[in-house]
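Chain X:
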Amino acid sequence: MRFYERVWWPLAQRLDPETSHRLVLRLGSVAQGVPPARWVASGVFTARDSRLAVTWRGLTFPNPIGLAAGADKDARAPLFFQALGFGFIEIGTVTPEPQPGNPPPRVFRLPARQAMVNRLGFPSQGAERVAERLRDLRLGVPLGVNIGKNSATPLNQAHRDYLRCLEALYPCGDYFVVNVSSPNTAGLTSLQAKPALKAILDPLIELRAALAARSGGAGAAPKPLLVKVSSDLRGAELDDALDVAVEQGADGVVAVNTSTDPAIKGDAASIQGGISGAPLRQRALEAVGYIRRHAPEGFFVVGVGGVFDHRDAWALLRAGANVVQVYTGLVYRGPGIVKAINRGLLPLMDEAGVPNLDSLGAHHGAIAPGAQQGPHGSPAPPPPDVTPYPGGAPRASPSAAATPSPSEMQRGPGGEAVSGP
């Protein structure tokens, strides 16, 4: 990671945020077409240990650290990211028709808080173009496909966009994620409400069964379908989304998407868009724990938000995540982050008496080593500056959120805060 910190990172900060990101994808696309380059990268960046593997619904995740949606929206370089050691890749969000997304500037970096704010709005080359790229791809790790609606599609017709995406991309993915939680497409988060989410999942589940039968014959198991939920869903809203996902036959959730909550964004509240990175860590942990306590056995939970090291990943895994995802942490820590997390997980597993991650279900919700405890080993009550989250997990109060001063934000040519790659 020294090369990243000393060479690439200073260079990236001099470039326009999206220019630097496009450069990474362009280099990755070239590198993935050169097998020796992939082999070398894989040897450098991949931690291989069978104890890290997670198996579910016929899928084997060689390790629990995945690339979150947003990093490779159009499947430009999935083999490159696999070579960086990721245990699974999630591409997207993919929309049925190509669209440019929101106008720039639309990605902002907050280095003092190890965070980013984006208002991208699903820029996508469209489902057909992405399907062409994926059709002959032979990836050695599970591939997730995150799907969404076009901004021009009325909310009451949103289900049609999700259906089109699933049909076009079903042969290409190993699992699919219904993104109804991005705050950057007008009205999208309203689709998490009970009637709206049911109207989307009902036909998706039906189509999924038909596509499974078409590709694998009668009785073929359908590919898993998950729902990505917002970090800003609280109480009854989260209950409703979880209830619909379970009742309609979804196989799991991805928790959580970016936040627009001023209590989380702090001084960045003036920047339109959702915040990711370290400020989202506690909210993601709370949501994962709550979902695990209330979801049925076997329900798959992908934890995402604020993962920068092995302790962050371990906290999500112990709270109830089956696997976790990284994106903002990759921007700040560089490509060595995946190997560092996986290596760091092994001693924590040993300390907790967890022989392998497939057995971690028996330990979900257990108190992590060194965590504060109350009488008889129960969790200690939340401190005064913390308010309870539904189900008992703590939520940081607005006063507890660290906020950067305007001078701490990385500035672009026009004075705006800017992102990293």
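Chain Y:
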Amino acid sequence: MKNDLIEPIKLAKTEAKLSGEMPIAALPRLAENLIAECDAITYVLDFSKDSAHRTLIQGKVEAELPMLCQRCLKPTKVKLTCDMNLAIVKTEEQAEALPEGLEPLLMAEDTVPLAIVIEDEVLLALPLVVLHESGSCSASAKLADINAKFEMSDERKHPFASLKDVL
């Protein structure tokens, strides 16, 4: 699966659809961010041409990835759903000229490994900071207590507060 090459231009001419599962072993850059083995990533891709004759890859990639919560340093599952809307381009100039809503997929050749296309989209969709879902992190309660104490300490007396009455 890792070395499966696709030809997006040919696939777009026939309006092909690809779907399946990509094993994590085929995605080494993603695998190094995970703390455990996980199920494969599922994908559905539609290849087509738009009215400007651009080759498009549109679809969805879904995954549930085991990662480390950066707040409590315990395992958490990150559920990702990435919508893809790629346009095949050969040059940087073509990439810059794409309309809003289309992301460039720069291809110097006619083929590209399917795993790289999927892996790039998943890596871009990962959160900058991985956290448990709201309310399910063991560190959240501790942080709430610390914040409450900090807010209470802000209500202290100000030594020069009585000067405002004098002026």
